[in-house]
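Example record

The entry below shows one chain as it appears in the dataset: sequence first, then structure tokens.
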Amino acid sequence: MRENDMLEKDEIFSKVLRAGRRTYFFDVRSTKSDDYYITITESKKFTEEDGSFHFKKHKIYLYKEDFAAFQDILDEMTNFILKSKGEEVISERHQKDFKKEYYAEDQEASSGDKKYTDIDFDDI
């Protein structure tokens, strides 16, 4: 087992934020000396032309001694952006009613009016 894997084996507390093609994982982990730190992982899905896909992951390790400064800078940056540009997302790809459409699709799928057929891999 790699040393990096050993450092991350003790997961204490986790939260997940799904944001379109990106997923953010926030994990509290334990060091060998039984102190805690945070890992923030961004995982982004990329689809190839042949339909296959892969994930690219980026990870940040955040230790207690850096929490206050990290939080201060993150607060300052997010406040600056929201004050300068507001909360509305400005993007060529972003649909203003994205969440609304996602919710509607989710309800259609759960209402029994499915547009697909369930197939068990054993049936293939």
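Notes for this example: The radius of gyration is 20 Å. Residues 40 and 60 are 5 Å apart (CA to CA).
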